[in-house]
Amino acid sequence: MDYKDLEALRKRASDSMDIAEYHGIICLYLSCNIDSFDDLLPSEKSNDESNDSIHIIEFRNALLSLIDNTSNQLNSTELPFLLLLPNDDESLEKRATALSLWCQGFIDGLGLVISENTASLSESSVSLLNEIFDDFSQISTLTPHSAKNEEEEEEELAFIELLEYVRVSTELIFEETKIKI
Prior knowledge:
Helix 2 (19-31) crosses helix 3, helix 2 (19-31) packs parallel to helix 4 and helix 4 (92-117) packs parallel to helix 6. The protein is globular. It has one domain (3-177): Up-down Bundle (Four Helix Bundle (Hemerythrin (Met), subunit A)). It has helices at 3-12, 19-31, 54-75, 92-117, 123-139, 152-177. It is mainly α.
């Protein structure tokens, strides 16, 4: 499933978190060897707790599949790791907003995990993670208007560079922390 399909499922399930933000959190959990996603997954009960919602169950199952696929990508030397964002045919504003939300999801828990587990990381690893954390924090403040300062082609190139930086940084964090935390 792609971003658009998962967003549609999320909306039908009446979940408020953007799928890009979910994917950022999933990548954080996988990078830090957190193997329980129960607190991330939506409850199978509807808001009034009266019955199971088929839309929530569908969305929950799609998230479980996304977790599995993302884990396979991060652990594979053959599959490319890709951020779950809107397709290139969507507006740059929509893609920049989704990248911002992705980074926000990733950093929401990263600071806590690093602060609780720095004893097992080398000084150079902590320095690298702090630098990436700071960069992701800056990227998470992107707004649709912050991508409007340059020519369209330059804006697209800048976005692609940011996207590649976040992708490679996520892989680097995964490699740095998967054994040590």
